[in-house]
Structure formats: structure tokens, C-alpha cells
From TrEMBL:
The keyword Protease applies. Keywords: Hydrolase, Protease, Viral release from host cell. One of its GO terms (biological process) is proteolysis. This is HK97 family phage prohead protease. The keyword Amino-acid biosynthesis does not apply. Residues 19-153 form the Prohead serine protease domain. It comes from the Bacteria. Transmembrane segments: none annotated. It holds the Pfam family Peptidase_S78. InterPro entries: Peptidase_S78_dom (IPR054613), Prohead_protease (IPR006433). One of its GO terms (molecular function) is peptidase activity.
């Protein structure tokens, strides 16, 4: 079995940290072409998320796609009109979780990347692949997401108020991580 990852250099970091360890963002955006030429269609995760729910399973939160380094839990994983939205908690009781939280709070890490198996896809004449059914296994915090817009961040498009709020959140998180 071949597990695919979406991973590439990123741009325009956007970070949302709440209560020192809660993160959220879009791990996948429908209709957006990633740097590997793949486009995820709306509904691509529906069957996978349904199967996971029926089995009482979960999408794993990993560090850099390393299955030996879980760093937290995704409390919410769902499709909406925009893409695959995730919200979860980095567990700071584990060493790698503390490191990840410090890097997110500092703005050094802000990418989200999915690990999945392709169930249905169509290759277009242009060479792009339209992914219509995926088995989602994990969503990782990564340095370089394949889809540059896949970020830990605020819902919707950022504006000046969001950027100011994010700066305040980061300062608070940084102080908490330093113990004061």
C-alpha cells in the first residue's frame, strides 16, 4: 500500500493558536492545484470520514508525516464548502508536542499536509490529477506543505484585524511557553 503526502515549499504564513495548544486550519482546499499538479474535488474525503466515524477511528496528528511522532489529536476534521477543515490540540505533555508548539508559536512552522491513499482519480490531458475519493490517514504539521495555502490559521481570508489578533495570540503563547 502506498501512502501519499502533499509537501512542498510554502509562502505567506498564517497562524492561529488558542489556549496555548489548540490549532486550526485547512489541510486541503477544494479546486486548488497543488505544486504536484493534483486538485482535490469537493466530497473527496466524505467516504473516508464516514468510515472512520463508523469505526470510531480518527485522523492522526503527526509531526512531519512521521508515524512514530504523534504530537496531538484532531478534535474536528470535516469537509465544508472550502475544503478539509481541521481543529485540534497539540499535546504539550509529550516532548515533540512541546517542541512543535514552540515552533508554531514562533511562526517557524505553519504548514498542514495530508497523508492519504488515492481511491479514485482522473488524469487530465494537461497532466493534472483530479482526486475524487481519498482515504485520509493523517494530517501533519509540516515545514513545507505541497499546497501552499494549507496552513494552520484563521478561518477565512486574513485581514488587518486578524493579523493583529494573531500577533497578540503569538505573544501570549510565547510568554506561556517561557513560563511567565
Amino acid at each position: 500500500m502506498y501512502l501519499e503526502h502533499k509537501f512542498c515549499p510554502a509562502a505567506d504564513p498564517v497562524i492561529s493558536v488558542t489556549d496555548g495548544s489548540v490549532i486550526e486550519g485547512y489541510a486541503s482546499l477544494f479546486g486548488a492545484e497543488d505544486q504536484g499538479g493534483d486538485i482535490v474535488a469537493p466530497g473527496a474525503y466524505t467516504a473516508s470520514l464516514k468510515t472512520l466515524a463508523e469505526r470510531k477511528g480518527s485522523v492522526k496528528m503527526l509531526w512531519q508525516h512521521d508515524p512514530t511522532q504523534p504530537i496531538g489529536v484532531w478534535d474536528e476534521v470535516r469537509e465544508d464548502g472550502r475544503g478539509l477543515y481541521v481543529k485540534g490540540r497539540i499535546l504539550t505533555d509529550v516532548e515533540k508536542g512541546r517542541e512543535a508548539m514552540a515552533l508554531v508559536a514562533a511562526g517557524a512552522i505553519d504548514g498542514l499536509s495530508i497523508g492519504y491513499k488515492t481511491r479514485k482519480a482522473v488524469r487530465e490531458p494537461s497532466g493534472r490529477r483530479l482526486l475524487s475519493q481519498l482515504d485520509l490517514w493523517e494530517v501533519s504539521l509540516v515545514t513545507f506543505p505541497m499546497l501552499p495555502e494549507a496552513r494552520v490559521g484563521a478561518k477565512g481570508d486574513p485581514d488587518c484585524e486578524v493579523w493583529r489578533h494573531l500577533a497578540d495570540v503569538l505573544k501570549t503563547a510565547s510568554r506561556e511557553l517561557r513560563g511567565g
